[in-house]
Amino acid sequence: MTRxxxxxGAGIVAPPMLFSVLVVLAWHGVVTLxxxxxxxxxxxxxxxxxVSVHLPTLIGAAALTAQAALAGFLLSFFxxxxxxxxxxxxxLAERSLYPYAIFLQTVPIVAIAPLIVLWIGHGxxxxxxxxxxxxxxxxxxxxxxxxxxxxxxxxxxxALNEASRWQVLIKLRVPHAVPAMLTGARISCGLxxxxxxxxxxxxxxxxxxxxxxxxxxxxxAQTKTPYLFASVLFSTGLGLIFFSxxxxxxxxxxxxxxxxxxx
Amino acid sequence: MTADPTSGAHVYATAVxxxxxxxxxxxDNLDVEVSPGQFVALVGPSGCGKxxxxxxxxxxxxxxxxTLTVDGMPPHEARxxxxxxxxxxxxxxxxxxxxxxxxxxxxxxxxxMPRNDIQVRVNDALELVGLQDVGDMFPRQLSGGMxxxxxxxxxxxxxxxxxxxxxxxxxxxxxxRQRLNDELLELWRQRRFxxxxxxxxxxxxxxxSQRVLVMGPRPTRVTAEHGVAFDEPRSATLRxxxxxxxxxxxxxxxxxxxxxxxxxx
Lengths: 263, 265
What we know:
The structure holds 2 protein chains of 2 kinds. By secondary structure, chain A is an all-alpha fold. Chain A has 2 domains: 1-35; 43-257, MetI-like (MetI-like fold, Orthogonal Bundle). Chain A has 10 helices and no strands. Chain A has helices spanning 2-33, 44-53, 55-89, 91-106, 109-120, 124-148, 152-160, 165-203, 212-221, 225-257. The two termini of chain A are 27 Å apart. In chain B, a hairpin with a 6-residue loop joins strand 8 (211-215) and strand 9. In chain B, helix 3 (100-110) packs parallel to helix 5.
């Protein structure tokens, strides 16, 4: 059985791995064949070199970005949950505020990020704020849907036992919303990394400590393109780590919650 | 109105009328009286308003006209008092994030019973339906018949004086269904709660109840009634008894008549 699972795992992992190897080879081929200057398009070896040279800086920047993204994500999860509870308890609140929640989703974050940084200030706080704003909506939307999509039969059951509004919320709506909340979290965690990087475009930090976003702007301005590629690579990796961590956590939570949706 | 808490509830409906907000009349001029501890089956065409009647008795929706009382009180008041009321649907409506034991505990939990008392009552209820070994499982790990047993245990854990069942066994296979019929009868004999049982099956209605009420199409009212007086306790051999078969035929005849009957516009 273990072997079976291993072969199946290999079947899932092998094709994308093979594909990435092909892409890197093609990339290398194009760069050498057409003799493209590294500041325009660095080859894989140039990027690898940049990574090895700047590894401590890249890791430090990634750690700082991760910190801001994590704070933004946790804050959005907490605030989004409270807003969703408010929406589930008051139709009036939902109707009057939901359009503005959608605004969070549609506003071009790159356009308002400088404003937010201007108001909140440079440094971590501004970056967290941008990350928070971009990751808030999926939490609100999914959690509200989960809290309000409870079967009427179950509501009847609670009514039959004279359950209070509070009991319906705590013992029925919130546990029922757990899978939807986790779906929202999986979407938001990726966004929170993007938000942190966009925030760092504008918030900067000092010369000693800076995140990946600042590094991207800096290396771009100095046309250190291999270094820029390395920064982008680390940003992507950070997003991937965030997503995998939340996905694993949510899968564990779902198992404990009582099983995945089968219906 | 202080009824004996150990006996079944008294249900009294006269000239009950129910019109929904969209104008459909589900129940019209319905008269039903059920004495304490009686087992009454309601049969009728689907969508005729039988379920609406149960929801009215449960106080989940209000009547539009007429009188409907449970132990002399309006249903929602009876529900809030010590005279407990339980409802079993075709769908077991279990909370899938709770283990079997915690599902059964729910009604007591909602009524703020102390934790230790809940545990004792839940164990009793699980034993009653033969599920003492699966208390720590999740609903998804159980078969349809076992899930229905959990639903019944949850209904009985609060020791209701009135049990409403809306086609509880309709989704189960015939063998499971007959076994659950016998189990329900045994529970009723022990506890003597009042029982209102809605079903599509004339066989099932006749086998279980002391009275079968045949209901007409929407807006529904009682079009025929049959007393069912067989020796207690009933058992599977009754199903092949000639008198039983005759009675089933009689109820079926009334039912098909009721289905043809077009209510006056």
